[in-house]
Specification:
Rossmann fold; alpha/beta
Length: 423
């Protein structure tokens, strides 16, 4: 068989390489970004994924920025981004573009598999009608559409494309079985056959919405416990020794990444169109979206205690990516914090060892030189060197710990003002 993967990012490239490793099928990748394709063809991994880097060192795949490469494929895997617009409504243009591309090549007996995260109803209401309109073919009779929502956890040393269980549903039971068996050849994980497309679409949405509402819960608790004089990290540690019915989540300066701060909006929007108002989900999003401003306000309050304005004060923003030990900037709350500090005209220094292109200095020590306050926005392991002793040596007076990552008691020992989120 010939297998086409549309979108060679965090989802598509690992999948294409996994198919290439586990089968003798002809695997081709299409991505409109020529620079990304060039890297792949040279064996350079364009994403931060240890397993994909390993696979790409051992073999490559055929890849092109020319859509003609997908012609004649038996299965088309769609792995494009599904972001939101500035008003938080779903942006399905990348998905629509990918489906239109497939529509120019789709023939009888072929399969289209959507791995991109979508809200319930997208396959039935957008993907299938668009393919039928472009091709004149009929779903089930002439072609089939399946959904296998991606599950990727960037930077995870344990879970990768090969071992994460997957859910699969499609336009017919026969197609579900066929695509599930295909995945079983490629992956080492459990493959669960779902009853239909819409139910399968809903699984991914609730997975990430679960994370979002629980993070919102602890973020609101953090705000409450600050008023009550309670250290939320001590509370979570204590609650976590219950062996059932509690799953710890942690507060912070904001929620980033391509999934958690995005996917709830897909469900909110689609349910609204059917007359249902997701008040709980919207409130969770509101709380989590408030955290960058909340964190910066802590900095403003701290500087006021020293009689200093934020304008003109040298502040080091440590961490720009959304996740520890990665350079991934997608939906990063640190970038929102950066914009807020720039708007307030701080003398801003930025440093992230994983994002040198946006860093204004090359080392932690350079970031600390002459700095009155630091705001830690990403919990990179490299920042563990920020002990009370080191900070005192550089004359740092204020620490705002947006990830509750540093040693609070150690920093306070040196007379440095420390404020975490909820502590």
């Amino acid at each position: 068989m010939k297998i086409a993967v549309l979108g060679l990012g965090y989802v598509g490239l690992p999948l294409a390489l996994a198919i290439r490793r586990k089968t003798d099928y002809d695997v081709v990748g299409y991505d409109p970004k020529a620079e990304k394709v060039d890297k792949i063809l040279k064996g350079i991994c364009p994403i931060e994924d240890a397993q994909a880097e390993k696979d790409l060192r051992e073999f490559t795949i055929k890849a092109s920025a020319n859509e003609e490469i997908i012609d004649g494929s038996d299965i088309y895997f769609v792995c494009v981004p599904t972001p939101v617009l500035d008003d938080y409504t779903p942006d399905l243009r990348p998905l629509t573009n990918a489906i239109e591309t497939i529509g120019r090549f789709l023939r009888r007996g072929q399969y289209v598999v959507i791995e991109s995260t979508v809200n319930p109803g997208v396959c039935d209401e957008l993907v299938i009608p668009l393919l039928e309109k472009i091709t004149g073919l009929k779903v089930v009779k002439d072609f089939n559409v399946a959904h296998c929502p991606e599950r990727i956890n960037p930077g995870d040393p344990i879970w990768n494309v090969y071992n994460i269980p997957r859910n699969i549903g499609s336009s017919s039971p026969e197609a579900t079985k066929f695509i599930a068996d295909f995945y079983r050849k490629v992956l080492d994980a459990e493959i669960n056959e779902m009853p239909d497309l819409k139910t399968t679409e809903a699984t991914k949405i609730i997975e990430n919405t679960f994370r979002d509402v629980n993070i919102a819960f602890v973020n609101e608790l953090a705000k409450s416990f600050e008023v009550l004089g309670i250290d939320i990290m001590a509370v979570i540690k204590g609650a976590s020794n219950k062996p059932f019915a509690f799953l710890p989540h942690y507060p912070g300066c904001g929620v980033g990444g391509h999934c958690i701060p995005v996917d709830p909006y897909y469900l909110i929007d689609r349910a609204s169109k059917s007359g249902f108002d997701h008040k709980f989900l919207k409130l969770a999003r509101e709380i989590n979206n408030s955290m960058p401003v909340y964190t910066v306000n802590h900095l403003v309050d701290a500087l006021n205690k020293f009689g200093k304005p934020i304008k003109g004060t040298r502040i080091a923003l440590l961490g720009l990516s959304y996740k520890a030990n990665l350079g991934d900037l997608r939906e990063s709350p640190a970038l929102k914090i950066k914009n807020l500090l720039e708007q307030k005209e701080a003398d801003l220094i930025c440093f992230d060892p994983f994002v040198p292109k946006l860093s204004t200095v090359a080392t932690i020590d350079k970031a600390l030189e002459g700095t009155f306050a630091i705001l830690l926005a990403t919990a990179h392991e490299q920042f563990k060197v920020l002990t009370g002793k080191k900070l005192a040596e550089f004359g740092v007076k204020v620490v705002i710990d947006g990830r509750n990552f540093l040693d609070k008691e150690d920093i306070l020992k040196f007379g440095i003002y420390y404020k975490g989120i909820g502590r």
